């Protein structure tokens, strides 16, 4: 039986009340509420405030922050901390995220529950360090070598930074995957009221500790839901954890195609087969819509203005806002695609990163119209409006 | 020379025997260092359930996989930052990094110097076999000047690191070097390192007969052990500046070069927090874990 | 600690010949010459050491400390 | 103002505390008056300098689109800010200026104008040039009434660094009274 | 006018004759023939032989090999060498490729022509170091943050390693992009006859040196084909090259959304708009086929056995073998999709990395059936045969 | 003190004047170091068209963008390996790396030590302002012990690197340290470094008034320059072990600490090839380029 | 053998030079006889050890599918290799064994068997144990005739490290003659 | 090099007041006090140095070496 225990937040990490916070600070508070007690990071605009706040808050909460020598170190120190039993995160933006790719793969392979926060800025390369983009969405999923799956969550307000980073930590624990918390500079630097509930109202997943004894326990034997239960260093299990292909004992089996196949498929299947429990999205007026706009993060909010403009002209436009972007809620997208004239996908990238995946899912049921933007700013709502009007034709 | 005697091979309880025989080549020095390590751990009395071992990738990196301890085989070069996270998140654990020269000093060099600077409370055992074993004998930052490796087929144009000096320059509190010939001394230094608070570093010079020695026509593993015996000069406490090994023919200075005290990163962290936050600060890793 | 007649300890050696890879380190660095390489092969084709001169063995344990394959172990036994 | 959505833009140059003004305003409205307020900001080179602008949307309801397009209230603290943003001010919007830093053109008939020498007041009446943004907060509260004096005051106190409450409260008073003296 | 000059290979680098070489060695010979005179690398199985050969060959050819301290250093040392005027490559596999992601973005942003060779092995993480996969295909395109485009070339024999790495260097020079030479362990370690032509028969593109003078020249002003012409350090142009968003002078404009938009779109468009000149594929019996198998690298060769088996049952099966994988020959794929019952895509990954993109392009015209394999081995031809037979239903 | 006089501000011809004013804050020490650099380049007579400058990312990293030279603004921490490629591919170029302490010693630390070890023929100017300027004042591996930074809001628990000692331990052939107060001496050392064959390293201590000094209430830039003046002790040739700066209050040892000779990486490479391949080997970078 | 596609598998353990045998065979056929030959290999742990196998496809035409499924010729140099691969040998295939390392079971009626004590021959007749693989090359050429003696000889010379030509040529001769003495 | 009457060189200073950011370094470290901060602002609001006491200036050039904004330059001119 999948050993998933929901509890409530440790009050030490919870600043109950109404706060006026930007997304970066709110994400830090959410992480603390979710039970994150270790963060390793390396400064980078526009994400550093998350760890700056963590550094200042953690001594009172109990835990550690360390600024490592680089992002590579941060992204693995975090995994050491997880195997010592803590919940942990690292925080970065574009260039740092690129440096973390090897360790996202390690976390996927060793099924280390952890959260990578990426406050997206304009790229490629150093790009526009202080300005927004949503152009690391595909990287979040494909950036490390080999096959694995992750979960990506995208908030569109400071309140959601708080709320959904808790989801991110919970999902990480349930599925033992690295979860990508994909913010953008706009959301990170936007300040709004953030209501932090009482600790008892915050639902938190504990680590799925095994209830087996040292002799019986196999560290990578999957439970019902394809996810293995866990132990930590120091508990007497004497586990071995390796980034090599390994069997259920955790022993390397790096030349065994059968073990490899089983492992890699399970790493993907645990997301695919549980996808319906992971999906999260919000819909507005999709019933009876002629056009549905699908978007996420800041772009979903910007799109609302374009939608409003189209509505003023009598067009029936709905919005599907993705909160969990990966995995995509494919059945619902197909359902909508069967009913609408077109799907319009505004996002702050020019390679239609999420749109192309929607297009694949839609498989010709209706046109999918990406509304790209290179970042360093947000869409002009007119562009979204125009795309909607164009799509109607 | 005094050797503690056990009724059964003390290394045995440390081995994942179901994984034997190991993949190391005949005469490879890595296994020898493991014998010393196993005995050192027993001798210093650390509870085995509280000892974690972290390796990078390489022949030496496989050590983690053969030891019946909580053991982590991470990515190439990154054992130290993984160990840092492990140690800081649960300061009760004793954390040992066991890896190769390429892993720790080539790709992992930055982590090495920063951990030493921070006096992070981890112990690093570096098996230096003068090349990259796992990938087939490429040049390492430890390869003797002018010697052959697959990527320096005409000879290495690089002066190798003086590893003890490098880590000492960054502030390591315990620095020693031995060869696989010096099993007794190595074991003794390992005991000291394990008991030491702070960043301890032990370089173990070891034969890689299959690759480095064969390519450079240096004979068998036994030959290199004999060379170790002949060329070694024990100089405890010598300035690490003096212990460089540039050429295969150089004398090999071995010994315990540095053995000093300073607060660890976590000591300083707790100290500083206490100073600023007063009694409301609960020192991390002292009673919790 | 002279001959078997007057010794308080005897040295004993356990050899796991299947683990041995024939590197000859144990034999080369045994201080007393108590072990020699056998002419036999194990199933992998390696010669392994033989405890040829037990009387010479001091049980110093060096063979076991050296052996990179955890294939030999020398120790001391009290003679009562 | 009793529109459901009030758009405010505050603009000037780095060092004037523009973002903090936005923060104080947004917090006053959302935390201390129970409304919703979204503050967004333009961000210059990685750490420092240059032109600076903050945008605040105030609303009783959930704020969807978070950016200002045509401000109801425009606060300008530099010539550049005036030139750049004045054209976007609503036809019946309110313009607030740091009068000694901005040379104005003509306004549209239904636009309202409020002027204050905030920097000088901060220097002369508060004794701390750096409080000019809090002076401006007081002034804004007084002349626009978008938030109550009480909420704005609380917000100031809740925002400024510990130890500087008093001087900032004074700055707020200076600005508020200067404003009240105009709108009566 | 795009300043593209075709010449022939420098004889110094060309080992004319028939050689019995594995793919890794052949790739090295191809690189030398293409004019590559600098390689920086860091050892990793199963790719190291490429640089090992380079290290041993280069002193006689004239140039430098340096083993750097890691892949990060290698992947930027290479770019330094390019800006000093040489053609250059780096060589790696999975974990090293992940570490190079930041610098692939840098090369894309600074339009530095260079070649990244990735001999793919099983992943994620350390995975199966000695065994094949084709699971870094999406990473090759999406692995760095922000939007950019690259070209990916995939050989399926040692001869093609030789031939097509020359293409890779040529494409890098023409489009000033990093080109990903995506081998796999099978091809890398497979030995076959490789015919190296006379130097005069090898077509090589020179760097597109500007013909403008220092005063007139703008380093990032695009030519007709959207690609700027180039200079090198030491030529007196006193250029500035930055990974920040930059204008045509090369000056940072990191807060200018217009400049950013123009630049990022051009970086993508130079590939999109020239795609028809970049595509390269091979077809066998696609005319009149009921089923077309689309594949690349070793899998395309393995697929032939499956195809053979289906033909024995009278099924009309064609093969489209992608040589340039990115960009995909979209029009041709659609053309085929319109005519066949299904497209079957065998590849050594389980996330349908190329198949999903084909699926998107096909947009419902016909079913696209991925035949996944986790790697650490190649497909059992039966699986491909079965997929074909299944697709017929 | 003797200062060479030019008719026009010699820095002017080095500037991309169309990019002035620069983004550095009032009183930032980076610009001061650029003055010295410009004069040093003129003084040592390197043809400007053959001088390339490489920076990483940071406030100091912006130097490349302001200098009217072939200039490369690369990625954070990676200026040295870029410079290595540039230099090896065209050994005729003089290659200078100009970057910040965080860039060179935090994320870039590994490249720094390896380039020093290899005696790669590049000159590294490291502006040490004791923190990360560009990103807003985070702790650096150079921050004084116990001082505040945004990521160590209660004080840094880390002992900073002794950068001259670090690079000297790895084999740098020229190592100097000055402050922005020591403009004349700095210029002179820069001339020496530029003329030196091999890996040269100059640390320039500089004020970051906006972040480091403000956060730590250290006064204005002028105050720090005065501190530099008061606390500095010139000790040429001193063992670099002795030049650590751990606390803000420590004396600041400045001077030229190392000035020695050994073959560069390329010298060795050519030498080794010639030895193995004989006359058919054409030394790289001697006549070609 | 005059099939268009001849599949050869060579198997044994690390250190026997299995891959080099495959290389010599493939090169002989493709470079010195103008055919096509694809050599692939199983690869053990990153650098070393264990079971080892090479596969060579020989054909007059372009080789598409590059792997051996049912070998026409199987060369086994260890018991493990025999156990593992014998079942895949074609019904009319040729089995070649290092007779002192392999204990055989029964063959199918149309299969042919050739045995050689290659290791001993290398030790005793050549004086270099390590040349056993070249002895085997000679033997294979002699008993199967898939490549000419000349091509195989050239290939050996072209492949072995400089300075070892003579001893390897000798090894080749030893194997070849041993083979000829069997097939006559 | 005493007063203007007997000097062989005069010190001259060029100030680009628009580039100045008012850090006062030049003024603080001019060895002779030849420059002082002006009361005026430039268009960015910074006070900049003024060449108040030309007679004191030795043209040592330090102001120009120090100025982080390349805004001041002192040099020497021969007096014929
Ligand atoms: C990122 C990355 N780069 C390269 C490799 C390939 N690799 C594996 S082990 C190794 C070097 C091993 O050398 P060393 O650390 O000296 O260990 P040894 O095998 O000699 O004990 C390398 C380069 C890798 N696994 N990951
Ligand atoms: C990979 C990566 N990580 C982080 C950053 C963010 N970043 C830019 S500059 C910088 C530090 C600058 O500090 P330093 O090198 O000391 O230069 P300074 O600004 O102080 O001159 C950092 C962390 C980045 N650009 N790239
Ligand atoms: S290759 Fe060298 S280091 Fe690796 S196992 Fe063999 S002898 Fe040891
Ligand atoms: S225990 Fe000592 S004396 Fe006895 S065999 Fe072993 S090494 Fe020799
Ligand atoms: S040291 Fe061990 S492996 Fe080597 S010969 Fe002796 S028993 Fe065998
Ligand atoms: S932040 Fe500091 S280092 Fe950066 S420009 Fe300002 S003063 Fe200089
Ligand atoms: S040149 Fe020298 S004396 Fe004249 S103003 Fe400048 S610093 Fe003062
Ligand atoms: S040093 Fe330069 S910037 Fe500073 S006050 Fe003087 S002229 Fe102005
Ligand atoms: Mg090694
Ligand atoms: Mg700095």
Structure characterization notes:
- The complex is a heterooctamer, with two copies of chain A (393 residues), two copies of chain B (289 residues), two copies of chain C (80 residues) and two copies of chain D (184 residues).
- Chain A has helices spanning 23-34, 48-61, 71-83, 94-99, 101-110, 137-142, 158-175, 185-188, 257-272, 275-278, 297-312, 330-339, 355-362, 381-392, and strands at residues 6-8, 17-22, 36-41, 64-67, 87-92, 114-122, 128-132, 151-153, 178-184, 191-196, 203-205, 240-242, 281-284, 291-296, 317-322, 324-326, 342-346, 368-371.
- With 393 residues, chain A is α/β, with parallel strands linked by helices.
- Chain A has two domains: 6-205, Thiamin diphosphate (ThDP)-binding fold, Pyr/PP domains (Rossmann fold, 3-Layer(aba) Sandwich); 282-391, Rossmann fold (3-Layer(aba) Sandwich), CATH 3.40.50.920.
- Chain B has a single domain, classed as Rossmann fold, CATH 3.40.50.970.
- Chain B contains ten helices and eight strands.
- Chain B has helices at residues 30-44, 63-66, 79-89, 101-107, 109-118, 163-170, 183-195, 209-215, 221-231, 265-277, and strands spanning 51-55, 70-73, 94-100, 123-128, 174-179, 200-205, 232-234, 252-259.
- In chain B, β1, α2 (63-66) and β2 (70-73) form a beta-alpha-beta unit.
- The mean pLDDT of chain B is 96.
- Chain C has 80 residues and is an alpha+beta fold.
- Chain C has one domain (9-78): Alpha-Beta Plaits, CATH 3.30.70.
- In chain C, β2 (36-41) and β3 form a beta hairpin.
- The mean pLDDT of chain C is 90.
- The two termini of chain C are 14 Å apart.
- Chain D is of the alpha/beta class.
- Chain D has one domain: 3-Layer(aba) Sandwich (Pyruvate-ferredoxin Oxidoreductase, domain 3).
- In chain D, strands 2-3-1-4-5-6 form a six-stranded mixed sheet, with helices on both faces.
- Chains A and D meet through β2, β7, β10 and α11 of A and α1 and β2 of D.
- β12 of chain A pairs parallel with β2 (70-73) of chain B, so a sheet runs across the interface.
- One magnesium ion binds at residues 58, 100-102, 129, 131-133, 140 of chain B.
């Amino acid at each position: 039986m999948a050993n998933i225990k929901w509890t409530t937040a440790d009050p030490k990490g919870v600043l109950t009340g109404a706060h006026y916070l930007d997304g970066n600070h709110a994400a830090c508070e959410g992480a603390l509420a979710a039970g994150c007690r270790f963060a390793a990071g390396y400064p980078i605009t526009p994400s550093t405030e998350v760890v700056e706040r963590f550094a200042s808050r953690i001594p009172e909460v109990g835990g550690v922050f360390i600024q490592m020598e680089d992002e590579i170190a941060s992204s693995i120190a975090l995994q050491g901390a997880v195997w010592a039993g803590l919940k942990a995160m690292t925080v970065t933006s574009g260039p740092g995220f690129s440096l973390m790719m090897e360790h996202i793969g390690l976390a996927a392979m060793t099924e280390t529950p952890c959260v990578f926060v990426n406050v997206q800025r304009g790229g490629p390369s150093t790009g526009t360090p202080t300005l927004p983009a949503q152009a690391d969405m595909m990287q979040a999923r494909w950036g490390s070598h080999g096959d694995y799956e992750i979960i990506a969550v995208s908030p569109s307000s400071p309140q959601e930074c708080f709320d959904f980073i808790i989801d991110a930590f919970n999902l990480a624990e349930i599925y033992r995957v690295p979860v990508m918390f994909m913010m953008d500079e706009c959301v990170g630097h936007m300040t709004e009221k953030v209501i932090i509930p009482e600790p008892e109202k915050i639902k938190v997943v504990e680590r799925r500790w095994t209830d087996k004894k040292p002799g019986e326990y196999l560290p990578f034997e999957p439970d019902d839901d394809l996810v293995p239960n866990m132990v930590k260093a120091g508990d007497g299990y004497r586990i071995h954890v390796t980034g090599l292909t390994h069997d259920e004992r955790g022993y390397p089996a790096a030349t065994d195609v059968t073990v490899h196949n089983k492992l890699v498929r399970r790493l993907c299947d645990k997301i695919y087969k549980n996808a319906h429990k992971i999906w999260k999205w919000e819909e507005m007026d999709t019933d009876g819509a002629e056009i549905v706009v699908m978007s996420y993060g800041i772009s979903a909010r910007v799109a609302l203005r374009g939608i409003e403009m189209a509505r003023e002209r009598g067009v029936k436009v709905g919005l599907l806002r993705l909160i969990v972007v990966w995995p995509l809620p494919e059945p619902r997208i197909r359902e909508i695609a069967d009913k609408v004239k077109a799907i319009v996908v505004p996002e702050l990238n020019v390679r239609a990163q999420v749109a192309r995946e929607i297009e694949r899912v839609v498989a010709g049921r209706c046109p999918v119209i990406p509304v790209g933007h290179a970042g360093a700013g947000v869409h002009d709502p007119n562009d979204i409006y125009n795309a909607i009007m164009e799509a109607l034709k | 020379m005094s050797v503690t005697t056990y009724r059964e091979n003390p290394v045995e309880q440390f081995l994942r025997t179901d994984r034997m025989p190991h993949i190391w080549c005949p005469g490879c020095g890595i296994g020898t260092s493991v014998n010393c390590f196993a005995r050192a751990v027993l001798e210093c009395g650390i509870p085995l359930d509280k000892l974690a071992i972290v390796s990078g990738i390489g022949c030496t990196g496989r050590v983690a996989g053969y030891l019946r301890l909580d053991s982590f085989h991470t990515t190439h070069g990154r054992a130290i930052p993984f160990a840092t996270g492990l140690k800081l998140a649960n300061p009760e654990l004793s954390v040992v990094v066991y890896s190769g020269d390429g892993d720790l000093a080539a790709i992992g060099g930055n982590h090495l110097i920063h951990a030493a600077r921070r006096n992070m409370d981890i112990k690093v055992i570096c098996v230096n076999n003068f090349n990259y074993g796992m990938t087939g004998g490429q040049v390492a930052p430890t390869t003797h000047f002018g010697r052959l490796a697959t990527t320096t087929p005409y000879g290495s144009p690089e002066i190798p690191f003086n590893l003890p000096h490098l880590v000492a320059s960054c502030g390591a509190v315990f620095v020693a070097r031995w060869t696989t010939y010096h099993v007794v001394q190595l074991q003794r230094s390992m005991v000291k390192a394990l008991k030491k608070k702070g960043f301890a570093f032990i370089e173990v010079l070891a034969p890689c007969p299959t690759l480095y020695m064969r390519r450079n026509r240096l004979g068998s593993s036994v030959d290199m052990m004999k060379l170790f015996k002949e060329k070694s000069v024990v100089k405890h406490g010598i300035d690490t500046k003096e212990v460089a090994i540039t050429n295969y023919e150089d004398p090999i200075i071995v010994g315990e070069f540095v053995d000093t005290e300073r607060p660890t990163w976590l000591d300083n962290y707790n100290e500083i927090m206490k100073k600023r936050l007063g009694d409301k600060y609960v020192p991390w890793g002292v009673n919790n874990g | 600690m002279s001959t078997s007649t007057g010794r308080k300890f005897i040295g004993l050696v356990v050899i796991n010949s299947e683990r041995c890879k024939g590197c000859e380190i144990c034999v080369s660095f045994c201080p007393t010459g108590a072990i020699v390489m056998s002419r036999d092969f194990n199933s992998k084709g390696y010669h392994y050491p033989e405890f040829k001169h037990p009387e010479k063995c001091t049980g110093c344990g060096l063979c076991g400390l050296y052996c990179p394959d955890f294939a030999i172990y020398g120790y001391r036994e009290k003679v009562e | 103002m009793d529109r459901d959505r009030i758009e405010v833009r505050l603009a000037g140059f780095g060092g004037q505390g523009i973002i903090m003004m936005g923060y104080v305003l947004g917090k006053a409205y959302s935390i201390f008056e129970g409304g919703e307020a979204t503050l967004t900001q333009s961000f210059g080179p990685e750490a420092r300098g240059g032109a600076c602008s903050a945008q605040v949307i105030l609303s009783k309801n959930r704020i969807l689109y978070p950016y200002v397009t045509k401000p109801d209230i425009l606060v300008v603290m530099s010539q550049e800010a005036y030139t750049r943003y004045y054209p976007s001010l609503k036809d019946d919007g309110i313009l607030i200026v740091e009068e000694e830093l901005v040379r104005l053109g003509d306004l549209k008939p239904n636009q309202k104008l409020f002027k204050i020498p905030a920097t000088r007041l901060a220097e002369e009446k508060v004794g701390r040039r750096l409080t000019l943004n809090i002076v401006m907060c007081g002034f804004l509260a007084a002349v626009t009434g978008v938030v109550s004096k009480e909420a704005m005051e609380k917000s100031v106190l809740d925002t400024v660094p510990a130890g500087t409450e008093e001087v900032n409260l004074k700055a707020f008073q200076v600005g508020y009274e200067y404003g009240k003296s105009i709108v009566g």
